[in-house]
Amino acid sequence: MAGSYNNIGLIYDARGDYDGALEWYQKSIAITEELGNRAVPATSYNNIAAIHYARGDYDGALEWYQKSIALQEELGDRAGLATSYNNIGLIYDARGDYDGALVWYEKSVALKEELGDRAGLATTYNNIAVIYLSQGRLQEALRLLERAEQIFAAIGSPNVEVVRKSLAEVRRRM
């Protein structure tokens, strides 16, 4: 039931109805806490954090991601941790704290490499490359974008087109 509530929240979220999504995520958390299921709340925490992020409430997003990380560490959910680390990097990036973002992105990369999460690696490589591009570190951006492109192309991800646009921008600026 809790998983279903979380999924309903995702539908509201996809429609842009953040208040409706938050209501369903909270219902999911309440049920799982009542039943003692520790795994589902971490997902709902991440989803709530993403809504705060989308609304520009970075402090609220960070608070929910930290809750998720605490639970993921307790459960040994390394894949969840890798995603949460990446998402916290996005918050620091949005705030303009690029050094802070890179710390979180590197933590994410380390776990994703250990787990063999190719799609996740490509996503985080792209995120790091965007920072490098904004800092004028074109060679480093190019290297990571080429790696992201190779991975996305190999797994057939539509994200390869976004990376190719970024690659074209880097090459134009070089």
Characteristics of this structure?
174 residues, mainly alpha, Serine Threonine Protein Phosphatase 5, Tetratricopeptide repeat, 2 domains, 9 helices, 0% strand
Tell me what the structure shows.
With 174 residues, the chain is an all-alpha fold. It has nine helices and no strands. Helix 1 packs antiparallel against helix 2, helix 3 runs parallel beside helix 5 and helix 4 (58-75) packs antiparallel against helix 5 (78-94). The model has no long low-confidence stretch (mean pLDDT 94).
Helicity level = over 70%
Distance between the termini: 53 Å
Secondary-structure element sequence? HHHHHHHHH
- CATH classification class of the largest domain: Mainly Alpha
What is the CATH topology descriptor of the largest domain? Serine Threonine Protein Phosphatase 5, Tetratricopeptide repeat
| Level-2 CATH architecture of the largest domain | Alpha Horseshoe
Set down the secondary structure blueprint.
Layout: H1 2-14, H2 18-35, H3 39-54, H4 58-75, H5 78-94, H6 98-115, H7 118-134, H8 138-155, H9 160-173
Helix pairs in contact: 1-2, 1-3, 2-3, 3-4, 3-5, 4-5, 5-6, 5-7, 6-7, 7-8, 8-9
Summarize the structure.
The protein has helices at residues 2-14, 18-35, 39-54, 58-75, 78-94, 98-115, 118-134, 138-155, 160-173.
